[in-house]
Amino acid sequence: MKFFATAAKGTEPALRDELRELQLPGVRADRGGVHFEGEAIAAYRACLWSRVALRVLSPLATFEAPDEAGVYEGVHAVDLDAVLDPTRTLVVTAACRSSRLTHSGYLCQLTKDAVVDRIRTRRGARPSVDKRDADVHLFLHLAKDVGTLYLDFAGHSLHERGLRMPGAEAPLRETLAAAVVRYSGWDRESPFVDPACGSGTLLLEAGLWARRVAPGLSREHFGFERWVGFGDAERRRLDELKAEARALERPSAPPLIGRDVAEDALALARQSARRANVSLRLEVGALGDAEIADAGAVVANPPYGRRLARPAELGRDLARLVDRHAQAHVALLLAEDQPLARTRRRPEPPRSLFNGDIPCVLRTWSPLAPLP
Ligand SMILES: C[S@@+](CC[C@H](N)C(=O)[O-])C[C@H]1O[C@@H](n2cnc3c(N)ncnc32)[C@H](O)[C@@H]1O
Q: Which of 11, 30, 70, 97 is found 20 to 30 A from 272 (Cα to Cα)?
């Protein structure tokens, strides 16, 4: 089978490296995600282990779709008996670019109609739609008038790990945080510091990665577990993968140190850490004063936008932070227009990333070699 794991723009290289480490065959980065191949179990592994992927899609059919009839007939021809029957629910999402049909809501409707019409004709009853918690998630992608219907193995997006406390202000998505931690160059052995940690997403992702905890272990279920064809053999295979993952876990992570000016954010970080069984050292304080002598990585997503009164002052604090931690990897995820004062260290080439739809830049510095 062929698969496409989707990822936020700019995080594709992190996902590619991660899927290569899982030793999945045919790994190749593309725009918006990473291709790989294998049997269904390869998709199970990606769902269980990927920290960066949002979804794991498998193409079911590709067809000419210059108009409404093309979409309907293309989808209608697809046999979904292995996943969907009249007792189950479905949801369809769609995206289109450079095509005559331009309304994704209409594409969802057409796709859903074609799927349920086929099942009703053959089975005498039809599955219903559940937009909140469907058993089967389908995705239609239309590009240059060619449609591809995908089956989504993950179901709900993989960033929903089920660990984080709700209520945080401007939290990073877990999947973006995982990519940022990877891009920072941290070795997973030395102390990891987030001096503006908010609800602690970067610290949590760092801790889970260092402890080799498979992020999918905390999920209630994956989409594929609710398909018609997910029987005893498939359940056994998934259980084996989970048992293997648990056996690989390390009991502890290196020190994970968080600081923030907002005590309520630190309280959320503390609660999420308890849920995730990750231990954090948290302190109230400003990032401008942070100085952790043995830090291996200093990684942060400082405040931006409306919440920020004095961007130039923050820019000076950040530059000081970089220079004070000369022996550490430093990675700062900043709004594109955040000024940064001059640093004594030379930055690596910046990476463009998106925090939701906010264009950001990830600036990184490698450790200076210690003086002889
Ligand atoms: C964009 S949020 C970080 C979100 C965090 N990565 C998360 O996922 O929850 C920025 C954080 O910086 C904190 N902050 C603002 N000014 C600060 C300062 N001078 N020193 C330290 N933290 C600061 C805010 O309280 C906020 O929690």
A: 11
Beta strands in 274-344 (DSSP E): 281-284, 297-300, 329-335
335-348 pLDDT, tens digit per residue, is 998 999 999 999 99
What are the structural domains of the chain? Answer: 2-152 (3.30.2130.30), 174-213+225-365 (3.40.50.150)
Q: What distance in Å separates the CA atoms of residue 54 and residue 67, rounded to the nearest whole number? A: 29
What residues have CB less than 8 Å from 102, skipping those under 6 apart?
A: 96
Q: Which residue type is seen at 5?
A: A
- Please report the beta strands in 65-116, taking only residues with DSSP state E, as ranges in sequence order: 89-97
Ligand 1 mean position, distance from CA 339 (Å): 17
**Residue 174 near residue 52, CB atoms below 8 Å:** no
Q: How far apart are CA 353 and CA 288, in angstroms?
A: 24
Residue 266 CA, ligand 1 centroid: distance in Å: 10
Window from 85-99, 225-239, 309-323 with minimum mean pLDDT: 309-323
Sheet holding 2-6: strands in order across?
A: 28-30, 33-37, 2-6, 55-64, 146-152, 136-143, 89-97, 128-129
194: tokens are: 């987030």
Which atom of ligand 1 is nearest to 287's Cα? 20
Whether the model pTM is above 0.90: yes
Question: Atom 8 in ligand 1: which residue has the minimum CA distance?
Answer: 171
What percent of the chain has pLDDT above 70? 98
If one residue of 260, 264, 287, 324 were mutated to test the ligand 1 pocket, choosing by the most ligand atoms within 8 A of its CB, it would be: 260
Residue 53 pLDDT > 90: yes
pLDDT attached to residue 308 = 62
The arithmetic mean of pLDDT across residues 252-281, rounded, is: 96
Q: Binning pLDDT at 50, 70 and 90, where does residue 94 land?
A: very high
**Rg of the chain (C-alpha set):** 23
Q: What angle do CA 60, 65, 71 make, to 5 degrees?
A: 65
Residue bearing the CA closest to ligand 1, atom 27: 198
**Is residue 137 within a helix (H) or strand (E), and if so which, with residue range?**
strand 136-143
Nearest CA to ligand 1 atom 5: 198
Dist. CA 269–CA 157, nearest whole Å = 22
Q: Whose CA is nearest to atom 10 of ligand 1?
A: 303
